[in-house]
Amino acid sequence: MQRVVVRTIGGPEQLTVETASEPLRPGPGQLLVEVEAAGVNFLDVQQRRGTSKVPLPHPLGLEGVGRVCEVGDGVDGSAGLLALGCRVSWFDVRGSYASHLLVPAARAIPVPDSFSVGQALIFQALTAQYLATEYRSISPGDRVLVHSAAGGVGQLLIQWLKHLGAWVVGTVSTDAKANIARSAGADAVINYGRDYSFADAVQSLTAGKGVDLVFDSVGEATLKASLKSLARGGTVVSFGFASGHPHEFDPRDLIVPCTRLAGGSVFSYNAEPAELQRRAAAVIGAIEAGWLRPSAGTAYPLARVADAHRDIEGRSTDGKLYLVP
Fold first, then answer.
1. Same domain as 104, residue 10
2. Based on the domain organization, do 115 and 197 belong to the same domain?
3. Is residue 39 within 8 Å of residue 321, measured between CB atoms?
4. What is the Cα–Cα distance from 235 to 134, expressed in whole angstroms?
5. CB pairs under 8 A, 24+ apart, for 47-56?
6. Cβ neighbours, 10 Å, residue 294
7. How far is Cα 115 from Cα 95, in angstroms, rounded to an integer?
8. Which of 51, 88, 235, 269 could be stapled to 130 by a disulfide with Cβ–Cβ 3.0 to 4.6 Å?
9. Number of helices (H), then strands (E), in the chain
């Protein structure tokens, strides 16, 4: 068994591929899975950097897809969904950058054999699903702003919002990413370059009305301008901090414009096994129906995990990155 471990906080050079001497064996309620692909997410970068605190040494990775190769006691495989050879996806399972992994059966999501790796890696689609359904009952014509619109979550969130009838504007940092956001279905795209200037453009696009909803995973560089982009009664949903944590915020800034600031976490909204399976079923159904189209993604051998981290940090990628053991 191979796995990627962080022993010292720092840059991508701190990522090491190690070989375990003892084979894994599933305990009660666990599955031993041979990993087909492990998703690379920005949270992994934050854990490696130390901006998201984890105990060291830390086996990296939270998401993957693979085949069940051994079943622990107490796992009900009577329906054939978690039996030997079944293909399952998961997220929020520590150490997913590996060739083999112990996955709690309660966190395993059966996925069709027909799904590509990009479709089967479900973390980002689950994020888009809860964002699009928990903060507003989207109606046709609602105006929504999506930051990082060319990213893995951004593209899927645009598709989900458009399916619900929203008018969507995305922000990106390059012209190439603008084309990606438009291909995902964005009605308008703002290229804010490196200075994150977008509030005036949003007001212009909406004839001074602002947007009803903003999804902000960027953080410090965008949050204040996101609030200024809202219509009366609108909401900013903060669900990530790619540019850093925002400075102190004064709730009084929300009173006169009658706006809201909300927070969200895909981990909280999928903490209970029944809720996880319900949301996953919605995602899988959307992919099978054809209106949710995850990107094919970019594959890296497990040995090139440092390159994958450099690329996602450099904002030179779009869509999903994943490691192949």
1. yes
2. no
3. yes
4. 12
5. 47/6, 48/6, 48/9, 48/10, 48/11, 48/12, 48/14, 48/15, 48/309, 49/9, 49/10, 49/11, 50/9, 50/10, 54/6, 56/6, 56/7, 56/8, 56/9
6. 25
7. 23
8. 269
9. 10, 16
157 and 66 within one domain: no
List the CATH number of the domain containing 21: 3.90.180.10
Q: Do 126 and 292 touch, CB atoms closer than 8 A?
A: no
Q: Is residue 302 part of a domain?
A: yes
The structure tokens listed for 75 are 């796992």
Same-domain status, 117 and 251: no
> Distance between CA atoms of 241 and 220, rounded to whole angstroms?
7
Q: Write the CB contacts of 153 (distance below 8 Å, at least 6 apart in sequence).
A: 124, 127, 128, 131, 217
- C-beta of residue 118 within 8 angstroms of C-beta of residue 319: yes
Do 239 and 148 lie in one domain? The reply is yes
Structure tokens at 207: 């004839």
What tokens were used for 6?
């962080």
* Burial grade of 70 (CB within 10 A; 0-12, 13-18, 19 or more): middle
Q: Which two tokens stand for residue 215?
A: 């999804």
- Write the DSSP string, 241-261: -TT-------GGGGTTTT-EE
The total of structural domains in the chain comes to 2
Residues spanned by the domain of 8: 2-121+294-324
H or E stretch covering 156: helix 152-163
Query: Are the C-beta atoms of residues 283 and 19 closer than 8 Å to each other?
Result: no
Per-residue tokens: 317:
């990628």
